Amino acid sequence: MKVVTVTLTIIAVLIVVSQCRRPWSPIGRGFTWLMNRTHAAVTRWGLGHVTVRAEDSILDVGCGGGQTVRTLAGVGHKVYGVDYSEVSVAAARSKNADLIGAGRVEIRQASVSQLPFPDGTFDLVTAVETHFFWPDPVNDFKEVLRVLKPGGTLLVIAETYKSGGLGTLMSLPMLLVGARHLTLEEHRALFRAAGFADIEIDHNPWKRWICAMGRRPVGAAA
User: Fold this and answer.
1) How many C-beta neighbours within 10 Å does residue 58 have?
2) How far is residue 178's CA from residue 173's CA, in Å, rounded to a whole number?
3) Listing from the earlier edge strand, what are the strands of the sheet with 197-204?
4) Is the separation of the CB atoms in 100 and 106 below 8 Å?
5) How many angstroms separate the CA atoms of 54 and 221, rounded?
6) Sorting pLDDT into bands at 50, 70 and 90, what band is 181?
7) Tens digit of pLDDT for each residue in 97-139?
8) Which CATH superfamily does the domain covering 2-215 fall into?
9) FRET partner for 142 with CA separation of 20 to 30 A, picked from 11, 89, 154, 188?
10) Which SS3 state, helix, strand or coil, does residue 3 take?
11) What is the pTM assigned to this prediction?
12) β-bridge pairing 105-109 and 78-83
């Protein structure tokens, strides 16, 4: 009986943990609601590192519950969101139903590895609490680079990065959810390997937040 109980507990934990990476059930829908709220503070902090213009075309990769899309739509010209989770896409569309109806927002189901947009489409691409799940980081960053306009910016925001001391405590939970736990310099190296220029890494050592950004070089071939 104890073996059955332990087995069922492990299965339940694995199901819940999997929702962090790719929401796929009613529990996952609850996760998208929770993410909209728990990621709000770090998102505000991260977005403070860029100036969004009224004419900007913006993409939010891994849009989750759609709150970041909604925030950006209050400033930018048009905002697109993509997520590879059908549950997340439905939640983001519900969150932004009025803006979708007004033609200000569009939400699509897609992977960062194959973005459904032409070269040089966006002025700004954001990724909040998602880049550490990307399946092929360097090539996925290159795919984001492809859809950016020359001079366009990729902004990566997350609530954790790998560091010494207490920062190591997050390594186990990140491992459990299948996420890469990168140091500040590993983030910089990732941007560099993908071809980004003007790379900037900011962090809050007390909250363990990171904001990393890079630009597509002006004059770079499409």
Assistant:
1) 26
2) 9
3) 105-109, 78-83, 57-61, 122-128, 148-158, 209-215, 197-204
4) yes
5) 26
6) confident
7) 999 999 999 999 999 999 999 999 999 999 999 999 999 999 9
8) Vaccinia Virus protein VP39 (3.40.50.150)
9) 89
10) helix
11) 0.83
12) parallel
